[in-house]
Design a protein that fits this description.
- There is one protein chain.
- By secondary structure, the protein is an alpha+beta fold.
- The chain has helices at about 5-10, 15-30, 40, 75-90, 90-95, 110-115, 125-130, 140-155, 165-170, 175-185, 195-205, 210-220, 230-245, 250-255, 290-305, and strands spanning about 50-55, 60-65, 70, 160, 205-210, 260, 265-270, 275-280.
- Strand 6 (about 260) and strand 7 (about 265-270) form a beta hairpin.
- It is globular.
- The N and C termini lie close together (about 5 Å).
Length: about 300
């Protein structure tokens, strides 16, 4: 099926169609678990399910609780990468982080060791921590604020630092991320290990709604943002496609064929290039850390509307 036909199908998606798909997935989705290593995330309602589809022509389809605040967590990583590409350029960004898909989970120390302590890509924890160290600002709070303000100004979203979530994250020290920080500093990838880890925690606690996620995602789908480099947009989309779902990325690149980024908070963003975005929230995760219902919904939409970028 040609690209024009695919565009037309996505444009003619109906609210009733979306609501029916969500209902069926709520009845039939495989079991998942809520992450328990961050107390605030562990309290999430496992039955919550929300989606917003935003098209480039302004059409919006939404179902579920789209206005409740949810932390970005790892869904911040594409926007961190885009911001630094815009601020520093690809040469400097990829001097500290690679572009290769990860073969092991997003926080794997084995993977980092195999790569001589150089982060394999920006979508896993080591890569995002290394990039957090490059954010401009005199301290962690300023760096987080700079990223947040840029994202809100560019996309019209309303992200804000969730201090309650940040306190919850800080209440449970993450020894794996601390070890990642140690190894990155030993390898010369960090200038300030403690600040990098603090910045990473803060930007992960930027919170907003599914509507905010959709608005921000449009920057990656829409060439009508002239202030964003088309090359930088392509780089982020490529890395979302190949790395955005961690070690499950290759499977879903074949089955869905869209750039996506997941989060342990249950957020999931899919980019439909030159057409729009799909932003989901459901807190039950699969073993790889991806939203079970969110992935099933995006897979259903992509297959029904022939959105796979590879035919």
């Amino acid at each position: 099926m040609g690209q024009a036909s695919n565009d037309q199908q996505f444009q003619h998606l109906s609210q009733a169609q979306l609501a029916d798909w969500m209902h069926q997935i709520q009845l039939n989705a495989p079991h998942g678990t809520v992450p328990n290593y961050i107390p605030q995330l562990a309290e999430a309602d496992p039955d919550r399910f929300a989606v917003q589809i935003q098209l480039l022509d302004g059409k919006v389809h939404a179902c579920g609780d789209i206005q409740s605040l949810v932390p970005l967590m790892s869904a911040v990583k594409p926007f961190l990468l885009l911001y630094l590409l815009e601020q520093l350029g690809p040469e400097e960004v990829f001097s500290v982080v690679g572009m290769q898909p990860s073969e092991l989970p997003y926080h794997s120390l084995i993977q980092l060791e195999a790569d001589q302590n150089r982060p394999r890509n920006p979508m896993i924890n080591s890569g995002a921590i290394a990039l957090a160290d490059r954010l401009p600002g005199r301290d962690a709070e300023t760096r987080c604020q700079n990223l947040c303000e840029w994202l809100n100004q560019q996309s019209g979203s309303q992200w804000q630092l969730d201090q309650t979530m940040l306190a919850s994250v800080r209440s449970r020290p993450n020894p794996t991320n601390q070890t990642i920080g140690d190894r990155l500093q030993q390898a010369g990838c960090l200038e300030n290990r403690d600040m990098a880890l603090d910045v990473y925690q803060q930007i992960c606690c930027l919170s907003g709604t599914v509507t905010d996620l959709a608005a921000s995602g449009l920057m990656l789908a829409n060439a009508q943002f002239p202030q964003i480099s088309a090359n930088h947009r392509r780089i982020v989309n490529f890395l979302m496609l190949t790395c955005g779902l961690y070690d499950a990325s290759a499977k879903y690149a074949v089955e869905i064929g869209l750039p996506m980024k997941s989060s342990v908070s249950g957020l999931l963003l899919a980019i439909v290039p030159r057409q729009g975005v799909i932003a989901c929230y459901s807190p039950l995760l699969d073993p790889a850390g991806n939203s079970v219902a969110g992935l099933l919904l995006i897979q259903t939409i992509a297959q029904a509307l022939n959105l796979n970028r590879f035919g």
